[in-house]
DNA sequence: CTGCATCCCCGCCGATACTG
DNA sequence: CAGTATCGGCGGGGATGCAG
């Protein structure tokens, strides 16, 4: 694997920072595309403190629709960020819990959240300045 | 600001990890929505080593369309990640360069890229397992 | 309580053609 | 070289209703 020299003509590739990134099968995009949805990272964040039930998550994230709550959880489960456990009670209860991968992801998510909060004001200021001089 | 106690009825708020996040004006989402576009983070990454001209960026990222290259650069400029400098030569040349904010963003982007590369295989494996046991 | 099915809107993005 | 303008597909995601 990892053909670097003798690359075929049609193969789309970019070289950045000393790395060779294939555009047709880029790991970063493959991961980013899934986790950059409107609710995915927030969901991982909501499970940081421990397992949660479906209805708990709905209360934690009031703005999410029931449809997107289900779908986001399914997508994260499929990619291995969390597990889904059904308890056959009456009525049924379902528990969602971060996997090791999910907790590992928190180690990069947390700095990002911190950075966003830290630099939010600067970004808003930049927007205002841009919109005034252009516009 | 930062009303925490005595919150109004209609105000949507979530409390996670000891932080109070307003959903109607969430800093993280405000930043993430812009930077999570298909090309934004890749563009910042492409400018990590130094300033680039328009045509250089197009060569570095062959898959991007001219339209999205322009638009992504405009959006990043607006949010303060990069500057745009026009040199009135013939034909004209335009240079894009990361700002301090842009370089600061690299400090959180880089770990994320590293994490993605590191865990890509695990995620693909999780997907395969999920798709097999489910339908 | 925890979903799934359906409808539908809107904004991202690609393709293409044209300009200083 | 470095854009702008226009068209159109497609998919994310919201609203609503039904089910086990």
Strand content of chain A: 15-25%
Chain pair forming the biggest interface: A-B, 51 and 50 residues
- What structural category do the secondary elements of chain A indicate? alpha+beta
Q: Please identify the oligomeric state.
A: homodimer
Poorly predicted tracts of residues of chain A = 1-11
Radius of gyration of chain A in whole Å, from Cα?
20 Å
Number of extended strands of chain A:
5
State the shape of chain A: elongated
Helix content of chain A: 40-55%
The strands making up the biggest β-sheet of chain A line up spatially as 3-5-4
Taking the alpha carbons of the first and last residues of chain A, their distance comes to 50 Å
**Number of alpha- plus pi-helical segments of chain A:** 5
**Overall residue-averaged pLDDT value of chain A:** 86
Sheet with the most strands of chain A? 3 strands, antiparallel
Give, in order, the helices and strands of chain A: EEHHEHHEEH
